[in-house]
Amino acid sequence: MSYLIFCVSLKRRWARMLTCLTLPLLLAVLGPAQAEPKTLRIGTGDWAPYVDQERSDGGALPRLISAVFADADYRVEFIFHPWDRNVLMLQQGQLHAIMPYSCTPSRLNYGICSDPLVRGEIVLFHRRDQAFDWTTVEDLLKYRIGTTLGYSYGPAFDEALQAGRLNVVQNGKEDTSFRLLELGRVDLHPQDRAVGYAMLRRLFPADSGNIVHHPRQLNTEPLRLLFRKDDPEGIKLLRLFNARLRDFAERGDLQRLQQALNSGNADDWKPSTQTQAVRD
User: Fold this and answer.
1) Do residues 128 and 182 lie in contact, with contact meaning Cβ atoms separated by under 8 Å?
2) CA nearest neighbour of 126 among 140, 113, 105
3) What is the pTM assigned to this prediction?
4) How distant, in Å, are the alpha carbons of 88, 101, 276 from that of 92?
5) Rounded distance, CA 258 to CA 118, Å?
């Protein structure tokens, strides 16, 4: 009986020793467990074709930004709010970044800007049956202009707006000014050209041609990501994003995206992968 107990005890010791020796080898073969990607919260607004809340992928710019951060093992969650609320949430640290915004002097008070994603073009929309021409902001003083809260329309327009020289009707929703323009309650609406025509097709599918844009640009400048100023994590994310974005630019992704936006084919654009770049 004593011999039997001794043998059983010995077998158990050998089993424990074998487990201790085998487990490290097994872990080495399997490799370390993959950590879940960290999630970044980025505030934005429904602004097709750049950002489209009705699409599962969020539209062209969310596809680009998600791909850029995915290269650095980050996952992006896009939070949709009015533009001015996005700014407030960024300042309060509730968001890692906001987009797409132009890098105006006032925004540099609270944010730091990424490298350009694409270039936006702000124009003045008016009814086709309205004779309209303009050269400077001074020519706009006699018109009723529908604007959206939280928007920047370029230095000259913003300065005249802040000085109270323009007759504006400000709205919190993107589509309100176009509805007012269609009804004749405002005369003009400044809007990004690509966004304006995408919105008109959505709002008035049968007669979107009743509203057109004047060919003179009110403003044109790049659209960017804004990170929080004086925030160490924001500065780190900005540098990481810019470095990865340059890789996409070198592969021609940003040029193809700009062409897709200008031609109305942004929904068909998809960012390339490193594997595709090597193959091409």
Assistant:
1) no
2) 140
3) 0.77
4) 6, 18, 40
5) 6
Residue with tokens 């890098």: 103
Of the candidates 218, 235, 217, the residue with the CA atom closest to the CA atom of residue 226: 235
C-alpha separations of 35 from 7, 11, 73, 210 in Å: 44, 38, 9, 54
Residue 90 near residue 111, CB atoms below 8 Å: yes
Residues of the chain with pLDDT under 70: 1-35, 274-280
Q: Please, what's the b/e burial string for 188-218 (b: 16 or more CB within 10 A of its CB; e: otherwise)?
A: bbbbbbbbbbbbbeeeeeeebeebbbeeeeb
Contact between 177 and 189 (Cβ < 8 Å): yes
The rounded distance, in Å, linking the Cα atoms of 181 and 132 is 14
Q: Which long-range contacts (CB under 8 A, 24 or more apart) does 49-54 make?
A: 49/194, 49/195, 49/198, 49/261, 49/264, 49/266, 49/267, 50/100, 50/118, 50/120, 50/192, 50/194, 50/195, 50/223, 50/261, 50/266, 51/78, 51/99, 51/100, 52/267, 53/80
Bridge partners, 227 (sequence order): 97, 112
Cβ(99)–Cβ(227) below 8 Å: no
Full DSSP string of 186-217 = -SBEEEEHHHHHHHHHHH-TTTGGGEEEEEEE
Helix, strand, or coil (residue 219): strand
**Angstrom distance (rounded) from CA 68 to CA 213:** 33
Question: Which residue, among 161, 218, 157, has the nearest Cα to 191 in the 3D structure?
Answer: 218
- Residue 189 contacts residue 175 (beta carbons within 8 Å): no
Q: What is each CA distance from 94 to 82, 85, 88, 171, 226, in whole angstroms?
A: 15, 11, 9, 25, 13
Per-residue pLDDT tens digits for 198-249: 999 899 998 878 999 999 999 999 999 999 999 999 999 999 999 999 999 9
Provide the token pair at 228.
């929080």
